[in-house]
Amino acid sequence: MADTPGFSQLDFLELGVEQLSTCFREFRELAEGCKFRGCTHLHEPNCKVRQAVDDGTIAAGRYEHYVQFYEEMKDKKRRY
Ligand SMILES: [Zn+2]
After folding, report:
1. What distance in angstroms lies between residue 55's CA and the mean position of ligand 1's atoms?
2. How far apart are CA 48 and CA 61, in angstroms?
3. Under CATH, what is the fold of the domain 9-73?
4. What pTM was estimated for this model as a whole?
5. Using CA atoms, how far apart are residues 36 and 11, in angstroms rounded to an integer?
6. Ligand 1 centre and the CA of 56: distance in Å?
7. pLDDT digit string (tens) for 25-72?
8. How far is CA 41 from CA 21, 32, 46, 52, 79, in A?
9. Is residue 30 within 8 Å of residue 52, measured between CB atoms?
10. I need a labelling partner for 50 at 20 to 30 A (CA). Which of 5, 22, 25, 41 fits?
């Protein structure tokens, strides 16, 4: 968790999935260019965040973190 300063994993889990991408500041600006509002940046076509990961604007490690948190949050929601 060394590269997510300012909040713990627990904080993330208390947020909604919709808020997750706003915690990744570099995602937020890019997300405005995504084709779909509420884009999860996982499987949507024309996703600017994934494009940025592909071209190196966003570090692949950051994106992996994002996906990891997203999956964990989804798991939690399903369980309760
Ligand atoms: Zn997106």
Report:
1. 14
2. 17
3. Ribonucleotide Reductase Protein R1; domain 1 (1.10.40)
4. 0.69
5. 26
6. 15
7. 788 889 899 999 889 999 999 999 999 999 999 999 999 988 988 888
8. 9, 11, 9, 11, 23
9. yes
10. 5
